Recover the amino acids of this structure.
């Protein structure tokens, strides 16, 4: 069977947020909900029906992929508003270019490529408008010693450090790190999304993890001092 | 045992679960024995855990109502894109087409017409026979004996055909034969071929 024709109920792999990414939004009509939830109706079939002039199949596609699109965009961009804009724009572009869809290829790879391109553009635009360094963020964070072992505060601090490190990483490393480590996609899936070879995707992942570890170690050392 | 430098390169893949089972077993065996590499692997693992934790905690900040609203806004945006496309289509149909396309087609037709005219003028088949000034005969190399050719319109009577076959030495084949005659001791130059 053609892999592109298989229903794409993909797992998120190592991420702990799988249900949050795959469940359907509330308030769907019964027809749309049935289409979106029916694993036997592939993404390619929904595209074909949309191109035939039906509206519900596309709404079902949105329902299937809007969460994943939003979260990928969010983990790359780091801001809810920007991620929402990216997800919306990705679906509009998808809709406009549906007639160029190659049925021999997997739908989600094609769609995620649109999302990633928009997200990386948004990240670069946001960086040029308000660049903040890790050091600045460290100054704004509460001192760990003053917190008296308050766990939620420590977790918030740690999360803040993670986002600061992600902001510090180059967009190409951040994209691979997000897709592999958070969204659980393999390097073979990531490579066509970023229009790079499999070897390049693996190298970027390797370097991205190393850089993330280096920044993390540095920040941990500073905050413990 | 694999040296520490070889292990350090594989640690990110090992921690991320991307190594093949044989490689992962080798790295694991090294980590059991090497304190420094174990410390590095621990740092990588904590960093990765923090990344996943931050991603998961951000997800808790967005609730179901946000996604419902997002779904509506996405569908509305695509619907308006569809309407914009449909409203643009009749306008496209009313227009005869881009002006440059019409101009290019007209230029193409004119070019083809002039091209055909000039070809027609150059063609021998369409040219009216004209008298040529004191036409001299033109010798065309060919593979047979020498022949006289006259331009069109030259009404002078042709020379009577030679009583004997034309001698060698004319035309391509003639030159080849001439070399053969030299080898056979025929006196040179050959007599002029009668016209």
């Amino acid at each position: 069977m053609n892999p592109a024709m298989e229903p794409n109920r993909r797992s998120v792999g190592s991420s702990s947020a799988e249900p949050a990414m795959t469940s359907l939004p509330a308030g769907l009509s019964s027809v749309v909900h049935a289409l979106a939830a029916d694993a036997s109706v592939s993404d390619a079939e929904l595209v074909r029906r949309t191109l035939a002039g039906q509206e519900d199949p596309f709404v079902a596609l949105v329902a299937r992929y809007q969460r994943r699109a939003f979260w990928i965009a969010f983990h790359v961009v780091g801001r809810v508003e920007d991620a929402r804009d990216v997800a919306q724009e990705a679906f509009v572009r998808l809709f406009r270019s549906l007639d160029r869809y190659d049925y021999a290829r997997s739908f989600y790879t094609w769609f995620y490529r649109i999302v990633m391109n928009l997200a990386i553009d948004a990240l670069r635009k946001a960086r040029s408008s308000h660049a903040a360094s890790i050091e600045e963020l460290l100054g704004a964070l509460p001192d760990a010693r003053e917190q008296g072992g308050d766990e939620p505060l420590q977790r918030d601090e740690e999360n803040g450090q993670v986002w600061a490190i992600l902001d510090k990483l180059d967009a190409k490393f951040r994209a691979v790190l997000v897709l592999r480590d958070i969204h659980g996609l393999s390097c073979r899936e990531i490579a066509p999304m970023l229009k790079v070879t499999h070897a390049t995707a693996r190298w970027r992942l390797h370097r991205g993890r190393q850089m993330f570890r280096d920044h993390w170690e540095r920040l941990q050392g500073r905050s413990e001092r | 045992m694999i040296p520490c430098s070889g292990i350090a390169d594989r640690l990110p893949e090992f921690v991320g679960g991307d190594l093949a089972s044989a490689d992962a077993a080798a790295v694991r065996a090294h980590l059991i024995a090497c304190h420094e590499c174990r410390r590095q692997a621990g740092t990588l693992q904590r960093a990765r855990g923090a990344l996943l934790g931050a991603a998961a905690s951000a997800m808790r900040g967005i609730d179901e109502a946000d996604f419902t609203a997002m779904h509506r806004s996405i569908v509305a945006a695509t619907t308006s894109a569809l309407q914009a496309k449909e409203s643009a289509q009749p306008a496209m149909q009313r227009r005869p087409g881009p002006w440059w396309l019409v101009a290019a087609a007209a230029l193409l037709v004119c070019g083809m017409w002039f091209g055909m005219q000039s070809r027609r003028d150059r063609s021998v088949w369409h040219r009216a026979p004209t008298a040529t000034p004191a036409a001299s005969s033109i010798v065309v190399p060919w593979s047979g004996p020498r022949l006289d050719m006259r331009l069109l319109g030259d009404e002078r009577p042709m020379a009577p055909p030679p009583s004997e076959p034309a001698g060698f030495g004319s035309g391509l084949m003639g030159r080849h034969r001439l070399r053969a005659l030299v080898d056979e001791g025929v006196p040179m130059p050959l007599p002029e071929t009668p016209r």
About this structure: Chain A touches chain B through 49 residues (CB under 8 Å). The longest helix of chain A spans residues 198-224. Chain A has a mean pLDDT of 80. Chain A has two domains: 1-8+17-130, 132-225.
